[in-house]
Write a structure and sequence with these properties.
By secondary structure, the protein is an all-alpha fold. The protein has one domain. 87% of the residues lie in helices and 0% in strands. The protein contains seven helices and no strands.
Length: 187
């Protein structure tokens, strides 16, 4: 029976990781739309969605604990951390696959061309000059030009590594909240 309960919990972890991964894909799509259309509204929606994901991640962790308690699985801090980290890893894999598909088959270099066009516009140059950030501006231009020549796999791995490190840090916070959460129906 315990092995069956663990496999049921594993299915919930995969489901919650898929939900979180789809949310990350929406954030990525908002940023892509913002850069390609030169519209800050999409980027603002992406930032707001990213901020709204923290309560969603905490909610998914609390649901996972409630499911584990319903299945009568003993819960330890390490068990909670590993399950929350697993949710994040499923999300990383799903968003990484979608990002690779985008860079390999859809983008064809247009994203970094749009970013480069945005950065080299006279208004942006004047803004950086006015702020006294000309050295930073030159570094940003050089970095975008270097990123433009990376393969789709390399671009995806840069984003995946960012998601992975963020996931490790956030899973600590969320597992602490999840571990001390007491479901109302099981008190």
């Amino acid at each position: 029976m315990p092995n069956e309960n663990l496999s049921i919990l594993r299915k919930f972890v995969m489901e919650y990781g898929s939900i979180l991964g789809l949310c990350w894909v929406v954030v990525f799509a908002c940023y892509i739309a913002g850069f390609r259309m030169q519209n800050g509204l999409f980027m603002l929606v992406g930032i707001c969605t990213l901020i709204a994901l923290l309560p969603i991640e905490i909610f998914l962790g609390m649901r996972m604990k409630k499911r584990a308690m319903q299945l009568e699985i003993p819960i330890s801090p390490l068990f909670t951390y590993m399950n929350v980290l697993s949710i994040f890893m499923y999300a990383c894999m799903l968003s990484g696959c979608m990002e690779f598909i985008y860079f390999a088959y859809i983008d064809k270099g247009e994203l970094f061309t749009a970013i480069n066009t945005m950065l080299t516009s006279p208004d942006t140059q004047a803004l950086y000059r006015q702020a006294g950030m000309t050295d930073y501006y030159k570094q940003a231009i050089a970095m975008i030009q270097e990123l433009e020549y990376l393969s789709p796999f390399d671009k995806t791995m840069l984003l995946f590594n960012n998601s992975f490190v963020t996931s490790i840090i956030l899973s600590i916070l969320i597992s602490v909240v999840t571990y001390f959460y007491k479901p109302a129906t099981l008190k």
